[in-house]
Amino acid sequence: MTDAVLTQAPDSPEAGRAGAPMAHPSREARVDDYVARFADIDHRDDPMWLGAQRRAAIESFGVLGFPTTHNEDWHFTSVAPVLERGYAPLLNASTALSARDIERFSFGGDWQTLVFLNGNFVARLSSVVAESGIYAGPMSDALSSDMRERIVERHFGGLADTQEHAFTALNTAFAGDGAFVCLAANVVAPRNIHLMFVSDAAAEGALVSPRNVISLEHHAEATVVESYVSLGSANYLTNAVTEVYVADGARLRHYKIQRESMRAYHVASWYANQARDCRYEAFSFAIGADLSRTNIATLLDGEGSHVSLDGLYLVNGDQTVDHQTSVIHAKESCTSHELYKGVLDGESHAVFNGKVYVRPEAQKTDGKQSNNNLLLSERAHVDTKPQLEIYADDVKCTHGATVGPVDSTALFYLKSRGIGPEIAVRLMTYAFAAEVLEELSIPAVRDELEKLAFERFAVGA
Hints:
Elements: H1 24-40, H2 48-64, H3 80-83, E1 88-89, H4 99-102, E2 111-117, E3 120-121, E4 129-131, E5 134-138, H5 139-143, H6 146-155, H7 166-174, E6 179-183, E7 192-199, E8 206-208, E9 211-216, E10 221-230, E11 237-246, E12 251-259, E13 265-274, E14 279-286, E15 291-300, E16 306-315, E17 320-329, E18 335-344, E19 349-358, E20 365-375, E21 381-390, E22 395-404, H8 408-416, H9 421-437, H10 443-458
Parallel strand pairs: 1-8, 2-7, 6-9, 7-10, 8-11, 9-11, 10-12, 11-13, 12-14, 13-15, 14-16, 15-17, 16-18, 17-19, 18-20, 19-21, 20-22
Antiparallel strand pairs: 2-3, 4-5, 5-6
């Protein structure tokens, strides 16, 4: 099928990367193209329940279409660049990957690593755990076991919203392989788990749709890191969805590291449900992709539960990075803490939209939300919108945002001590970024991200 050509009047006041939506016929043609691609794929090997979810999702996507800047959640981020090329699902892609290729993306120490190349599981570079009380392996293997398939069926699609979110519907329709991590009650994962999603030159023009499920039963504990990385500079679209279930008293540390090709586009959506007295620590690190978007939504559905949502983004050139968070306080005595920080240079653009919703029954809520941005260029810009919507009267909630250049007083102080202006700026920007990284509780991850941040500033990026 020939790709539709998307056009926009060059004299439009909103034309460009952050501009108005493309003409509706072309946008609709692109949606029709994906619907047609879905019909051409053979899903007969899917379980009946998965096939039903796929069909419902593509129908929903056909109705929703791609979001435009008229959608409130997409007001500051245009997906027009994504629509300019029709990305096709990559079927039966090569898994020609060596351990040396991905060595630089690994962490030191003893980790359980699951490797996916262009959406396909690479068994020879991965370590699957399937023993009493724990399974951490590819979704495809989990679906081949009757017992595990029943567990997957209970969780797959239970949280992901395909009725309101087009990219989630698109992922569900075309969901490829991904990770299924399941811990029984009172089980502590013996090793930290690294889910590594790699794209190489073969991903050129591809739609890659990882689908992950993480489930911790009561008082279980695990650390899961999702890495999205590139070998080379292919132009492709990653559209990932992860569903997270954290039961009573469980603790999950969940990190995402995004350093994809600078020609790639990246959309990732996390949906979490939290039960009583649990802890969910989510962190997003974004340094790559031409346009990236991270959506995180969690429901605090048990008394005494806690969530921390933190993030750091370092962008340059004409990159766009967008973070959207949604925290719903549904029960008493829950806490939510958010801290997102960004460093922007060149003509880059950052968007932050954080929502904290406190239901009437969620008394004694403690919610904090902050977004701080450092601009290294007069051409960089930020659109930030922290929000509180409170319907309970016994709460402690705060929110705030800052956007500005390097502090001139501190810069003058460093210069007066004989530090050159370029080094002084690098030191201050590194210190600004390191503040949020210091909160990470896994030393190997913290050290690696601090190294990446330092290297980014060391080359003046």
